[in-house]
Request: fold
Amino acid sequence: MLKRKINVYRWKYSEDSALCNGFKMEDTDMNFENTAIIIMDPWKKTDYKEADRQVRENVCKYALPMVRCALLRGIKVLVFTNTGGGYPTEIVDELQCMIDGKLVKLLYHNDFRCAADFGQYCERNNICNLIYTGYSIHACVLFRKVGLISMYDSIYRDKIQMYLIPEATLACVSKLEDENMAMKRAISIMVSQQMVARIIKFSDFIAYCKDY
Reply:
């Protein structure tokens, strides 16, 4: 059973010079075998063409490299989407190919009545670390039934450790990218300061997977 140390970050109000842009670096043991990446709603087609383009670019730049590294190390990958009913369902092609090849697990939001249902799924599948990515960070990633806030408010709050990789998310609240980045940073600060989830940098995750 392989365990590695991985850098994680949380926001801390301090004048400590060791902080990285306000985030304090820690490290933690993370067992490959009981860790899963969540990719929330990587849709191929919505009513917002610019958002569709951004999602695909983000998937190709961040999600796919993460998935490839994760699969080499035995980390599970769970992709969430809708079942229909007028909502987007189609997954970005590159991820759909991995789903079709049974390398990645596709799950539906309607499979779970609440966060506790998903917690039970994690228990059955020996998952105690969840690494969140997906679209968009201020909506689906936080507030879906299996999202960060929902899981934090559930009975699994102390049983499952949650992490967030901000680079592998998008905030789509404005046509101005500076405002979107500000939103993403604010959410990263909030979830880490309140200990909802700790932050993992994309580069640290890739290095963690490759360093064995």
Remarks:
- The chain has a mean pLDDT of 90.
- The two ends are 12 Å apart (CA to CA).
- The beta strands are 3-11, 23-31, 35-40, 76-81, 105-108, 129-135, 161-170, 198-199.
- The first strand starts at residue 3 and ends at 11.
